[in-house]
Amino acid sequence: MNKITRIASALALALVATLNHPAMAAPVKNIVLVHGFFADGSGWQGVARILTRDGYSVAVVQEPETSFAEDVKVTTRAINAFDGKSILVGHSYGGMVITEAGVNEKVAGLVYVSAFQPDVGESLATLVKKTPPVSESIKATADGYLYVDQARFHADFAADLPAADAKFMAMSQVMPTVQTAGAPVTQAAWKTKPSWAVITTADRTVNPELQRFMAARAGSKVVEINGSHAAFIAHAEAVAKVIEQAADQADH
């Protein structure tokens, strides 16, 4: 066998090896964070800093919470703005949004944090009625908006945050429409996408038993944190760790 023949043979073998053993896809490097009721995107600041430090590109969605359809639309816009696939993360009501928006082909996986994981036809309101929270501090205004009683906000929403921080969150809370809470999902992305769930065991806003039921139904990989509903703020390192695991393990 002459030198040219040997080189050609080696190249052919290398090509066959490449076809039989394709290179592993790189981990997902885009993260889209979606907030829930009564909070806004600033609550993700700690998580976003960690993810950015670790080399991820992060988008924080500021959904208006005036309608479920609009919230899905602005989340979809954030997903599509990235090149390549993303991990979609939702806190609380944000879980409703990512369940619908997550069917986007650019979404590689879903992370639910103290979140609702609805099935098709379920709304936040129907899930809450199924397994009510300990708290009864959520009220409705005369014109159809929801809010958390400021006097109960620290205990019921953000018990593991300093009192001063919880007080400011209470004063600046975003009030969603009652209509948004009653809107059912029409698609459930967790049926076709891998999912992770951070269960907050001291949560007084979304019953931990409801969180466990929804995560089990979805087949989510579960991590439990002894935290309040605001654990995405108070336990940012633990939450970011789950998101990074999802980015590393999701289908690319």
Automatic annotation (TrEMBL):
<keyword id="KW-0732">Signal</keyword>
<dbReference type="InterPro" id="IPR052897">
    <property type="entry name" value="Sec-Metab_Biosynth_Hydrolase"/>
</dbReference>
<keyword id="KW-0378">Hydrolase</keyword>
<feature type="domain" description="AB hydrolase-1">
    <location>
        <begin position="31"/>
        <end position="241"/>
    </location>
</feature>
<feature type="signal peptide">
    <location>
        <begin position="1"/>
        <end position="25"/>
    </location>
</feature>
<dbReference type="GO" id="GO:0016787">
    <property type="term" value="F:hydrolase activity"/>
</dbReference>
<dbReference type="InterPro" id="IPR029058">
    <property type="entry name" value="AB_hydrolase_fold"/>
</dbReference>
<protein>
    <submittedName>
        <fullName>Alpha/beta hydrolase</fullName>
    </submittedName>
</protein>
<dbReference type="InterPro" id="IPR000073">
    <property type="entry name" value="AB_hydrolase_1"/>
</dbReference>
<dbReference type="Pfam" id="PF12697">
    <property type="entry name" value="Abhydrolase_6"/>
</dbReference>
